[in-house]
TrEMBL record:
Stretches assigned to the Connexin N-terminal domain: 42-75
Residues covered by the Connexin cysteine-rich domain: 134-201
Entry protein name: Gap junction protein
Locations listed in the record: Cell junction, Gap junction; Cell membrane
Known role: One gap junction consists of a cluster of closely packed pairs of transmembrane channels, the connexons, through which materials of low MW diffuse from one cell to a neighboring cell.
Species: Oreocharis arfaki
GO terms, biological process: cell-cell signaling
Lineage: Eukaryota, Metazoa, Chordata, Craniata, Vertebrata
Stretches that traverse the bilayer: 21-39, 77-97, 118-143, 178-203
GO cellular component: connexin complex
Family classification: Belongs to the connexin family.
Keywords on record: Cell junction, Cell membrane, Gap junction, Membrane, Transmembrane, Transmembrane helix
Length: 219
């Protein structure tokens, strides 16, 4: 799978981000996207083929694998990466709208179309809220689908067409669990960064509005 589009998106958003936002982009790019492409994808590459049960009943391994892994960890991780990066498009589109508006009116309407103020500030805050919400949703989804953030070595399955309770073994469980913990840790770090940036922007522009009102009262 090509991740060039996500890399280009993050590079484009970087121009309009605050300092905390740039840290978030670096974390997503270096500790999530690169780790996914360079290592994690290969670990789960043959997870279905390497899932073994101690019985050769036709169909038994397939239904047991589907029961314990309704969605592959790695595919859910890929979906999470795409979804949490998508809200950043709102900022890019808003800046593009400002630039096109200036071209249409053939005059300078903004000091800098990429400055986070006015309507762009609202768009930026909405994108932060969406990113934080999506991160939390995916963490809850991971937890609910797999009964916690762990990869067991052995699972017991008694789903038809298995004739009785059979033991099924997951390949490389320790390695997969390490990457799963890494996924959870980076997700939590991104949530903290998003909330920090959200608080910073709200505080900054609240102080700015307060000072403007204070100056008007003095005048």
């Amino acid at each position: 799978m090509s991740w060039a589009f996500l890399r280009d998106l993050l590079s484009g958003v970087n121009k309009y981000s605050t300092g905390i936002g740039r840290i978030w982009i670096a974390v997503v790019f270096m500790f999530r996207l690169l780790v996914y492409v360079a290592a994690a994808e290969n670990i789960w590459k043959h997870e279905h083929d390497e899932f073994e049960c101690n019985i050769k009943q036709p169909g038994c391994e397939n239904v047991c694998f589907d029961h314990f892994f309704p969605v592959s960890h790695i595919r859910l991780w890929a979906l999470q990466l795409i979804m949490v990066s998508t809200p950043s498009l709102l900022v890019v589109f808003h800046v593009a709208y400002r630039e096109n508006r200036e071209k249409h009116h053939n005059q300078k309407l903004y000091r800098n179309p990429g400055n986070i103020d006015g309507g762009l500030l609202c768009t930026y805050l909405i994108s932060l809220i969406l990113k934080t919400g999506l991160e939390i949703v995916f963490l809850v989804l991971f937890y609910k689908l797999y009964n916690g953030f762990k990869v067991p070595r052995l699972v017991k399955c008694d789903i038809k067409p298995c004739p009785n309770t059979v033991d099924c073994y997951i390949s490389k469980p320790t390695e997969k669990m390490i990457f799963l913990y890494f996924l959870v840790a980076t997700s939590c770090l991104c949530i903290v960064l998003n909330l920090s940036e959200l608080s910073y922007l709200i505080f900054k522009y609240s102080i700015k509005c307060y000072l403007k009102r204070h100056m008007k009262k003095q005048q």
